[in-house]
Amino acid sequence: MGSTSLVFGEYARQNSAGGRVRLQVQMRAWLPVLAFSMIFVIESTAYFGADRTSAPLQRVVEAIFGFDACAHWDLIHHMIRKTGHFSGYGVFSLVCFRGFWITLQGAALRLLRQLWAHGLAILATFVAASADEFHQSFLPNRTGDFSDVLLDCCGAVALGLVLFVSMEVIEGLRAKAGCSLVPDDAAAAA
Q: What is the pTM of this model?
């Protein structure tokens, strides 16, 4: 009886420690996504509507480019806000990609893992952008536009494509040099 509890006790400690390590890895993978989501929650309030951001942004543009730039302020302000959508959700998609890339470590093929992570990151971006626009449709000074969701997804696809190509180029260079990002089974066994 003593030896059985000793063996199972040791197993339980290893299993528990392994579970803690997996939890820590998952927390490190997904906490940035949660933090980035909180930025969207704060930004998606009535306080960050176009009517409230126009004057402060106009002062910044005037300080940088002079008063002549503000002759077309409505267009400039619109472009600043849409660029924010494109780039903000594009970066969110990259943060989601990182989370999925870490989570999908068990995938057999690197390319398959990469494609799954990109696809899931774009899907997560679509869901987050849709929820954001839906929420904004209930605010008095905000609008919920599906065109913004499409713009957000375009940012996700564009930055995802840049990341995908970059990863492929780096992997190609490393393969030429004789080392791979993901070791194969033969190299790992040696």
A: 0.78
